[in-house]
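During the no-cost extension, the postdoctoral fellow (Dr. R.K.) reprocessed legacy sequence entries with the updated structure-token encoder. One reprocessed record is reproduced below for audit purposes.
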Amino acid sequence: MEPTPLKVNVKLGLACAALLFTGACQYLPPLPDRPRDIFDAPIIARGHMVAPEQLQQITPGVTARADVQALLGSPSQTSTFNDDTWYYISSSTRQRPGRALSVSNQRVVVVAFNPNGTVSEVRELGERDGRTVSFVSRETPVPGTERSLLQGLFGNIGRFNPAGGMTGAQQQAPGNAPNPRQ
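Re-encoded structure tokens follow.
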């Protein structure tokens, strides 16, 4: 059986369209290096992000405390016993579905001041400068909180009212006293 001229024309037209389409693909914009998928979480900036350009504007021995505050803003933390050291703490975190919170970039900018109020030092601390803190899992015992087995079993007797109200002497809250005119 010989193909009809209509079928030949349709096949020829589809072949030409496919050829034109593949030739036009060279004019499409390039794909990103790594396409985002649905499991890629956005980066969340936390704390006081200090740009490197801002740090370049601070000159030790010249820049005053008020100038630093105008440029960088209020610090995240100051030194414990005096106001001679300011800390600007920041981190970048990601929360991916099904995973724990991950810190991708942690940074602390330390600005130290002289007694006369000018900057003496500017340092940046990263993750390598941090210290690991081990937590103690023990709890401090509080006297009087230990309950015996019998206290646990019988301690709530008399506290439950199936009607939903309190049992025993009920105290009226201020402003909720019964109205004697009723």
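Residues 5-24 form the longest helix (20 residues). The beta strands are 44-47, 77-78, 85-94, 102-113, 119-125. The remaining legacy entries will be reprocessed before the final report is submitted.
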